[in-house]
Amino acid sequence: MVYVTGAQRQDVVVVGDVATDVFIHIPDTNVAIRAEDGGQWLEIPFGTKLLCDKSAIVAAGGDAANAAVAIARLGLRVALATFLAHDQFGRDLLVGLRVEKVGTNLVRIDDPAETNRNYILWYGADRTIFVRHQSFNYHWPHLRPSEVPAWIYLTSVGPNALEYEHQILEWLGENPAVRLAFRPGTAQLEAGVEGLADLCARSEVLILAEDDAKALLGDGSKDTSDLLGGLLALGPHSVVLAMRDGGAQAADGDHRYVVPPFPDSTPVYERTGATDAFAATLVAGLVCGFPMERALKRAPVNAMSVKHEIGAQAGLLHEEALATYLDEAPADFTVQVL
């Protein structure tokens, strides 16, 4: 699939922070998982040295870069609007994006900030991520007519980006034909329902992990139907809840959709980026004009694939590979439309 929208230069502009991801694998020795207070806690000895049997660096990581790479591999023209520092991490990140055919014409250098780095403690198949957003001088660029995309995909930005988001909303108001996909990041979710109201109302599709939706709506006991209804009440055209197992539930004004995880008998290797892969693949389908049912069926394939590699991008599929998985899927892998 090589799909060209009415946009002249890029089908999608992904907006959000990027980072160098540093993975540190923690071996089983002297480490434990404790379940308590509705969550899990990683316990390691304090004040000592632990052997690290594996480590890895992903130069161009973070939610926005993960989404941009996923969309580019599916054959769409994508650019990334983000901020870097003039340091080695920033230079390596630019190289990584260009290798993946992600447009960097909207990347801005902001000194004296440092390029973001995420530190990921990887234990078993799961991980805990230490995230720090630099205080960039966020500002929405002037886009020439040829740079106006068909879609904006907005994801995680830093806690000082409120004015930046207002600028994006103003620009979207001036360009009503541009559709918005919104996948809030950690700092955005902390703004709560009131802080996200305008972005949600402008969104063509709002995508959240189930736990994030519960936190945003302020009631961890809500069932899926209540969550979908509560998110739709914020004003987006459609909402999608990505589940931890790789499946999802979605809703719009007319229907509710349920898609299971993609069938896979291989053990999970590492989970980082599975929700990014799901969300970006879903949006890529919508950009191509697919109905929600078809877009939802494609998304769990990429969510499954990235769990078998280190990091959020190594397992991302190109269009041909994704199509092959779908062609060979069992007959019962379907999307329920309710």
Key terms for this structure?
10 helices; ten-stranded mixed sheet; UDP-N-acetylmuramoyl-L-alanine:D-glutamate ligase; 16 strands; 338 residues
CATH topology: UDP-N-acetylmuramoyl-L-alanine:D-glutamate ligase
Radius of gyration: 19 Å
Ranges where pLDDT stays below 50 over 5 or more residues in a row are: none
Name the helicity range. Answer: 25-40%
Structural class by secondary-structure content: alpha/beta
**Total of DSSP H or I helical runs spanning 4+ residues:** 10
E-strand count: 16
> How many domains?
1
In CATH, the architecture is 3-Layer(aba) Sandwich
Shape assignment: globular
Portion of residues in beta strands equals: 15-25%
Mean pLDDT: 92
CATH homologous superfamily assignment:
Ribokinase
H/E topology pattern:
EEEEEHEHEEEEHEHHEHHEEEHHHE
Strand order across the largest sheet: 7-6-1-10-11-12-13-14-15-16
The biggest beta sheet reads: 10 strands, mixed
CATH level 1 name: Alpha Beta
Task: Measure the end-to-end span.
Answer: 29 Å
